[in-house]
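Exercise: predict the structure of this protein bound to iron/sulfur cluster.
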Amino acid sequence: MLKHLFAELIQCAGSSAIYSYIALVVVGVVTTLFYMRNRLRPSLGGTEAINCSANAANVVSVNYHFTRQCNYSCKFCFHTAKTSHLVPIEEACRGMKLLKEAGMRKINFSGGEPFLIRRGKQVGQMVRYAKETLQLESVTIVTNGSLVTEEWFEQYGQWLDIMAISCDSFDEGTNELIGRTAANAAARQVEVAYRVQELCGRFGVKFKLNTVVNTHNVNEDMTEHIARLQPARWKVFQCLLIDGENAGGQDLRDARALVITDDQFAAFLARHKALSPIAESNSVMRNSYVIVDEYFRFLNNVNGSKEPSMSILDKGVQGAWGKTVFDQAGFVERSGEYEWTRLAEKNSTGTSTSTSTLARIPDTNVVLRAVKELSD
Ligand code: SF4
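Solution:
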């Protein structure tokens, strides 16, 4: 073949023919290299692609559980008071800045109970820093609500987008069975939920409600109260066992008697279908949250327990991410990215409103009528 090519080359002896053969040789070499690369792709590109996605921190939406201390004693608590550690606020702000530089657009402050630390000042100052300095799209808090005050809203409410209250039942006896109360609480949980909802509306903050479905409330019909409270989002979680937190034995909590089946969870959801709850089954909950703990470490829930990474404060976001697993599909399935900014400006009647989110849950009377028709 080569001999033949050379013979032809000499015969032609024209420069145009030489260029043609050079071009042919180049094409041949390129084709061979391309073929070899494709043959090698499964063994190289496959693992490279997996490692790459596993190593890239996905920190769009972060849950910062900055304290484990709490004044309640819920039996299924997923984040128990194993330590009393608290990162100084300057360090917490530095950590948040690192997360923002790595792509964070939303931060949720959680606990423990966020308002227990410095009577809400700690969380208030972090909320302000996240919104005013870091200019995050969304700054939110999850709280049991018992320590939330009007004064706090006056001081920090303008920088908060959403406040979520945990309320598992509208029967106080059930809340007490669950432990969703404090011995010396000034108000019971149902009253707390209504009070915080009113404060949120007054200060232009979206109100959210979280409910953990367990053996004590699984048969409850919450329609009337949810329809009245009109949360922008009602998240409904299936009680989840996490080793090291609530699985009994050495754990601070034992939620084994509160666990429900998938069918029971489905029945609860079906009963409240008219209210469009955002459902989180055990499988969806497990890894679809980016959790940062009180030491500013990622918590990785791969083996049924939460394993901490190195601290973001020491290693940076990418360095700490390591083997952290993030379930992007689960994040999407539970509508992890939603309309997460505060309510629209107050209207002429002085009432804050946001049609796009509140419209998700129809007017109280419409819901109650629909439920009545279903049961007739
Ligand atoms: S309110 Fe209940 S679930 Fe939340 S941190 Fe406190 S004890 Fe845990």
